[in-house]
């Protein structure tokens, strides 16, 4: 099989970084696209950079190419497109909405400008990426488009309305693009991680990737936390599956892909957030009498 060429939109940190690195681990050339560089910070005000991610991709065995790209700016995305001669995998992981999400107040009492910014950063960016980059796949008659979201169904769990709108909308994008792209040999789908151990989450809980289990005392459900590499390994499995089109239009999850492809997280376990949610979290049950190891 020829070397895969991938674009990971929003690859600076979190799921995007984990996905980019795991694509590198299967030998892919990965265009690491995002806003934060070593010389220019983004409004997220985080220390991670696209150059850091690109170096991790190369260290994993692929070729990481950092590209500074603001996906709200179509000319930035067009400049990225013009660097590509082919595109096998597009991972649409742009978010950048956390600073503007208000989970505490009802929508009508929240800041409207912030709400609209959540929509712009989390939804319009995906549309810009698709409109600009998907034609490469249509012309070559092959490719895989993965829309990264939060959650695998449309149940409303009380999150902020703009957040719910964006994440459910991304799932609908995966469904709609599958219908439009299937006749052209391109597969589109949506994918969610479970309880993700992003850099921001680790910082918030005062732990590191090496000491993350110390945070279980603060949040018992963190016992099911998964590294960003876990969903990344799911993406790598999808990217190398010759029968991937069977998933077209579906809303997949890291735990479902784990069951399908039998990969493990960095610590050698297989966290199953879906089963934990069904048995414990979703029912509001205490974790006192539960052994998290039974769900990993």
UniProtKB/TrEMBL annotation:
| Alphabetized SUPFAM superfamilies for the sequence | NAD(P)-binding Rossmann-fold domains (SSF51735)
Mind telling me which InterPro entries this protein's record contains? Answer: NAD(P)-bd_dom_sf, SDR_fam
Q: Which Pfam families match?
A: adh_short (PF00106)
NCBIfam families linked to this entry: PRK08303.1
Q: What is this protein called?
A: NAD(P)-dependent dehydrogenase (Short-subunit alcohol dehydrogenase family)
Gene source species: Kibdelosporangium banguiense
